[in-house]
Amino acid sequence: MKKSAACAESVNIKHLHSISQIVNQAANWKTALDEITKFVRTFFIFDNLVVYLSNLHQDMEVFYAKALGRGKSAEADASWGESIANRIAQSHQVILEKPDESKKEDRLKQPHILGVPLLINNNLLGALVLIRFGGPEFTPDDVFLTEFIANQISQIIHRDKLQQKNEILRTQQEQNQLRDDFISTITHELRNPLGFIKGYTTTLLRSDTTWDQATQEEFLQIIDQETDHLQELIDNILDSARLKSGQLKMKFSQVRLDALLKDVQLRSQMNDPGKKVILHCRDGLTPILADSRRLSQVFENLINNAKKYAPESDIEIQIYQTEDFSNIQVRDFGQGIPEKYLPFIFDRFFRNPEQSPNIHGSGLGLYICKKIIQEHNGKIEVESEIGKGTTFHLTIPNAQELLYEDRALKEEL
User: Fold this and answer.
1) Domain ranges (residues) in the chain
2) How far separated are the first and last CA of the chain, in Å rounded?
3) Which positions of the chain have pLDDT values less than 70?
4) What tens digit of pLDDT does each residue of 275-323 get?
5) What CATH number matches the domain at 2-169, 3.40.50.300, 2.40.160.10, 3.30.450.40, 3.40.50.2300?
6) Distance CA 344, CA 76 (A)
C-alpha cells in the first residue's frame, strides 16, 4: 500500500483525473478506449496496447487492440502478448516479462511486456497488455499507472455488460408486454364474433319458438357477417406471422392498377352499400409488376380501416403514375389521428387508445399493409389532421427487378 502511494505521487495526478473523466463521459466502450489510448500515449511510452476478455471457456480473446509504434510488423504473439494474457487468466496476477538482453537480436524480437488483470470484485474479466519493443524497461510507476488504467477499463467493460443486460431485460419486458397485449386483444376479438355466432345460432335452434322468415334471414346475415369477421381476424394473424418471419412470398405478375382498384371499389360497395368509395384514376394506366392479391388486400385493409374509424365519411382513392412509380392516396374525412400516435400507426398490434372500445380490431391491418408494400420495394406513409381526416400515401415501383422467382416470367416480360 505504501509503495502504491509513493508511485502515485510520482505520477501526474492530472493524468489520472483525465483518464477518469474520459471513462465517465464516453458514450461507449470503443470511444473510451480510443480516447484513453490516444491520451495516455502522450506521456507514457508503449508500442502496442491490447485488451483481452475471458470467454465462457476461460480462454482469452482479443477485445480491443492498437499498434501505435514499432511493433506494427512484428509476429503475432510478440506483437500482442497472447501468452501473457493466458498466464494472467491462470494467475490473476500482474506479469512483467523482459527480453534476454544477452541476445543480440532485432529490437522487435526483444519486447518488454506488461500484463495486468482486469478485475471487478475480484472476478477476472480479462487482461490489459502493453508492449514496448527494445525498451525502455517498465518501472514500478509504469506498473502503477497501468493498474489504474486497467481498473478504468474494467469499469468500462463492466458498465457495458450491465447496459447490455439491461437492454436485454427491457426488450424481454417489451416482448412480454406485446405478448400479453396480443393475447388480451385477440381473445377479446375472437370472443365477439363467436359470441354473436353462438347466440344467434342457439336462438334459431330453440324448439319452443318459431321465427318468421324475415327474422331468420336477419339472424343468418348477422351470423354470416360475424363469420367473415372471424375469418378476417384469423387470416390477419396468419399473414402477420408469415410476413414477420419472411415466409409469405409475393407472386409477381403484370397488374393493371386501375382495374384492380375498380374491383376493390365494387366489392366494398357491394358489402357496404351505405359507404361511398370514390375512385379517381384514368383508364389505361401502365401495368406494373406486383402481387395482385396482396395489393388488393392492402387497399381493402385501408378502406375497412376508414370505415371503422371514419364511419360517416366518404373514402377517396386517387392514383397517378410517373415513369418509374405508381402513387396512390387513400383518404377519409373523419376525426383524424392524434399526432402523437402517428409514429406507431404501422406497429404490430398498435391501436389508438383514444378510440371507442366498441371499435373492433386486432392492430394488425396497417402492419400487414406496410409489410406488403415493403415487399414490393415501396413505401406507405400517413398524414392526419384532427377534425379533417387521414390520408395514406403509397408509392410502388412500376418494375420489380430481381424479385422474380419464376425466371420464365421475367424473360416473358
Assistant:
1) 2-169, 173-245, 253-412
2) 82
3) 1-11, 70-79, 101-108, 178, 182, 185, 355-362, 401-413
4) 889 999 877 788 999 999 999 999 999 998 898 888 889 999 999 999 8
5) 3.30.450.40
6) 51
Residues 97-124 have pLDDT tens digits of 988 766 666 666 788 999 999 999 889 9
Residue 246's region, left for phi above 0, alpha for psi from -120 to 50, else beta, is: left
- Grid cell for residue 343: 409514429
Residue 335 CA from chain centroid, whole number: 31
Q: Which three cell numbers stand for residue 357?
A: 372500445
Helical axes 140-205 vs 13-25, angle rounded to 10°: 10
pLDDT at 403 (0 to 100) = 41
Cell of residue 24, nine digits: 465517465
**C-alpha span between 401 and 413 (Å, rounded):** 11
Q: Which CATH class name applies to 173-245?
A: mainly alpha
- Cα 318 to Cα 42: distance, rounded to the nearest angstrom: 66
Mapped onto helix, strand or coil, the DSSP state of residue 288 is strand
- Angstrom distances, CA of residue 273 to CA of 31, 277, 312: 63, 10, 13
d(CA 290, CA 51): 52
- Using alpha carbons only, give the angle 120, 50, 152 rounded to the nearest 5 degrees: 35
Fold match between domain 2-169 and domain 173-245: no
Closest CA to 92 of 63, 64, 122, 62: 122
pLDDT at 393: 96
Q: How many CA atoms lie within 13 A of 175 on its CB side?
A: 6
Q: Which fold has domain 253-412?
A: Heat Shock Protein 90 (3.30.565)
